[in-house]
Specification:
The protein is mainly beta. The protein contains 6 helices and 33 strands. The chain is globular. The two termini are 12 Å apart. Residues 1-70, 103-108, 115-151 and 433-448 have low confidence and may be disordered.
């Protein structure tokens, strides 16, 4: 993940010299709880404990350092170290005894030390610093203070290179990252120039071990522009916007999950390159593209292409922060998308966020868009059909979700509910004449137009070139998360329950998928019965020092047996049988400078049962290998 583009918060301390050369090093904080008396706080009992200690906000206050005779104490070196974000700064008091410093956003402990002085009074200060969201982080909840600070822009080229200042001009910030590494996989595939997730997770078509250049290990390579521009005459109101995109660091191509599948269409399984499914499909702004209004008192309302609420919360409560190389729920996206990874971002979406002291609430909705293709009633019962009998359909791909949570400097938690209609999953490239057997007779997947695996007679309704094959479901998901922050450790735990069913409103041939692609193959009744998925994860992040973190994570996905009749035994497995997918990872991240960090780690993943079946129907084609071991090293530059 990219670092935040920070809204810097300035603190000052007062130090008094004594004969014993002791000094009081005290950060001066002000707490604010701007809770309108007319707005109720519908807080679940689950989060009641989180409201006991309210989160402090911070306002700069001018103090000076002086000795007992009130003379200024100059040239005192003080080092505040943020134990949660591993940031530290070293500054000295000026001639008038005043000292200022800035910290990264986050709910963290900050420890102060002064050279040649002993510290007493407040040594560990609880700080709640908020800021604008980074490239692959979530939109920050709006702060409560009436006069939020503005980004601290870089004043010179040297400052831009040596510090984490924002590349900001009149409220508009340019940001981005370049993240690339190298790794070895026990079972992998050649990289695609459009792939953005690397090869660390176990893959259905992976075969031999290989060394690879791996993209986007801790965060997505790419760039963006965002802004928060105050509206003159409207006290506390601002126009906000964000436009960001991801690129492949090796090829420079826009990140495009759909293209990775299309490039493998018609090839033999042994000839595949890395093919994935995901929300980035070559759009000019394949991450986010939205605008809206923000108020310090009434929250933020935005419209456009935006990350789902599940994605927002996942990035906050995943110990690996969605790192593709080390996080299953970041790489796979099933959890963040509420059942399908394409739904980690929603087009034509409205999102609203507001905070009340330590509590926050968000709601999100998506309008129907695109086309639903055409549908032949004959195909629904397995009969052959012709193009003339295909009736146009209206799109019903609407969605909505809610998030409620609370937190302070020690603990935080969120609950998210999401529902998405006509969700699409791309499970494999279209098969060709050399793929296992002829797709027209094998019963696997067709490279001709189909609904429910039924081909039309005569010519194809549309050319399958540059098309995709999708499974369609209606999804519901509820997620609960919790995080505890200690002095050097952060603990994470989360759980999500997902319910998937065949769609109430089917899609047909020619239906729109993301990025302008269309489906030439559609399955509307892939599920024999309701599919139930449980995903849980846990992990810990240890701050070894101000620059180095070590993260250990574990993830598990479990699905039920939704096959009818339930004949799931060895040798007769289908993707509708019960199964598990597990991943464990361990990695270290060291910040050499404010803008450059290096990392090294490893991940191990394996699948069993129905989740180890490569194709979602037919006589159960299994993964070539059920596990993958993947050590990775690399570096990242952020701006």
């Amino acid at each position: 993940m990219l670092k935040y583009c920070f809204l810097r918060h300035t603190f000052l301390f007062s130090a008094k010299r004594s004969n014993s050369r002791e000094a009081v090093v005290i950060p001066v904080l002000s707490r604010y709880l701007r809770i309108p008396s007319w707005i109720p706080l519908p807080t679940p009992v689950l989060f009641a404990a989180l409201f006991i200690a309210p989160s402090p906000s911070v306002r700069a206050q001018a103090l000076s350092a002086s000795d007992p005779s009130n003379g200024a104490v100059a040239n005192v070196s003080v080092t505040p170290a943020n134990l949660g974000t591993s940031q530290s700064v070293e500054e000295r008091t000026s001639a008038d005894g005043v000292y200022k410093f800035s910290l990264l956003p986050g709910d963290d402990l900050v420890k102060f030390s002064a050279a040649a002085f002993k510290t007493r009074g407040i040594e560990l200060a609880n700080l709640n610093v908020t800021g604008m969201a980074g490239f692959n982080q979530v939109q920050t909840r709006e702060p409560a203070p009436a006069d939020p600070p503005t980004p601290d822009a870089c004043a010179s080229g040297h400052e831009a290179a040596a510090t984490d200042c924002a590349l900001t001009w009149h409220g508009v910030t340019v940001y981005g990252a370049f993240d690339v590494g190298a790794g070895w996989v026990s079972h992998g595939l050649p990289q695609s120039p459009y792939n953005y997730e690397g090869s660390t997770l176990v893959n259905r078509n992976a075969s031999t071990s290989r060394f690879l250049v791996e993209p986007d290990n801790l965060s997505q390579t790419g760039f963006g522009v965002r802004g928060k521009i105050p509206l003159h005459g409207w006290n506390g109101w601002s126009f906000v916007f964000n436009a960001s995109t991801g690129v492949d660091p090796q090829s420079g191509q826009l990140s495009n999950a759909s293209r990775t599948d299309i490039d493998d269409n018609g090839l033999d399984r042994s000839e595949y390159s890395e093919a994935i499914d995901g929300a980035r499909a070559g759009q000019p702004f394949n991450d986010e593209y939205y605008g809206g209004l923000s108020s310090t008192n009434f929250g933020t309302l935005t419209f456009g292409r935006q990350r789902s609420l599940g994605t927002d919360v996942m990035l906050l409560y995943d110990p690996a922060a969605g790192a593709y190389a080390f996080s299953y729920i970041g790489y796979n996206g099933t959890m963040a998308g509420g059942g399908d990874t394409e739904n980690t971002r929603w087009d034509d979406a409205v999102k609203y966020r507001i905070a009340f002291g330590p509590a926050h609430f968000a709601a999100m909705g998506k309008f129907a868009d695109g086309t639903a293709g055409c549908y032949a009633a004959a195909a629904a019962v397995g009969n052959t059909w012709i193009a003339a009998s295909c009736e146009p359909l209206k799109p019903h791909n609407t969605a909505y979700g809610f998030d409620i949570g609370a937190g302070n400097t020690k603990v935080s938690g969120d609950v998210v509910y999401q529902r998405y209609s006509d969700a699409i999953s791309i499970v494999n490239p279209l098969l060709g004449p050399t793929s296992l057997s002829s797709p027209l007779t094998s019963g696997y997947e067709y490279n001709t137009d189909s609904i429910d695996l039924t081909s039309i007679t005569g010519a194809n309704l549309l050319d399958p070139t540059n098309t995709l094959y999708g499974i369609v479901t209606d999804n519901r998901a509820i997620m609960g998360t919790f995080k505890y922050t200690g002095e050097q450790f952060k603990y994470y735990v989360g759980y999500e329950f997902i319910r998937q069913a065949n769609p109430d409103n089917p899609l047909g041939v020619g239906a729109s998928d993301q990025g302008g692609y269309v489906l030439s193959g559609v399955e509307d009744n892939n599920l024999d019965s309701t599919k139930l998925v449980d995903i849980w994860w846990t992990g810990v992040k240890y701050s070894y020092d101000a620059k180095t973190d070590v993260t250990l994570s574990f993830y598990e996905q479990v699905q039920n047996d939704f096959r009818i009749p339930s004949t799931c035994v060895p040798g007769n497995m289908r993707s509708s049988c019960a199964g598990t997918l597990n991943e464990a990872s361990l990695y270290s991240d060291h910040h050499f400078t404010k803008r450059f960090d290096g990392f090294a780690g490893l991940a191990y993943s394996y699948v069993t049962g129905g989740l180890a079946i490569a194709l979602p129907h037919g006589p159960g084609v299994p993964y070539l290998h059920n596990s993958n071991f993947a050590p990775t090293v690399g570096g990242r530059v952020t701006f």
